[in-house]
Amino acid sequence: MSDEWAALAERIAGHAQNYLDGLTRLAGGEGGDAILPLLLVEVAQVSLAGTQLGAMQDVILQGNVEPVLSEDPDVDPLRTALAARLGPVDDYAEVFDPYKDTAVTPYRLSDDLAAVAADLLHGLRHHRAGRPSEALWWWQYSYFNTWGNHAGAALRALHALVAHTRLDVVEESTVV
């Protein structure tokens, strides 16, 4: 593995860990009423890591086989905690693929955020096991296959929610 790719694996691992840590804190109640803009920041930052993976050449593993890992940790408690914190804004509508599948599909922010976490966590496990090539391969593959779409959808939904809270204000009455 080249020094450039090793450095990229370190950067992506840092972004992945920051996302997981931030999501866990927010699901646990940190951030209070600012959960939506803070989630927007978390998703935007990890999306930057994804775009770097999308812009680079394909990572091809030796033998084109991913080494076996034990079962990934369960992210469902995180998803459940996020769903409880998001409450009525958890459900939203999204177009899955604006070029191939233009049907509106129901989504949940908690599902999207947890799906991103699960894919990043899987890659982190490779990285922590000293397999940066496998980590990069997984993050890139899963970015195109799953977590990139979930992060993009969550980013759009969170942006809309934050924008509505800032722009949909009742005009103040003026007293003469």
From TrEMBL:
InterPro entries: DUF5063, DUF5063_sf. This is DUF5063 domain-containing protein.
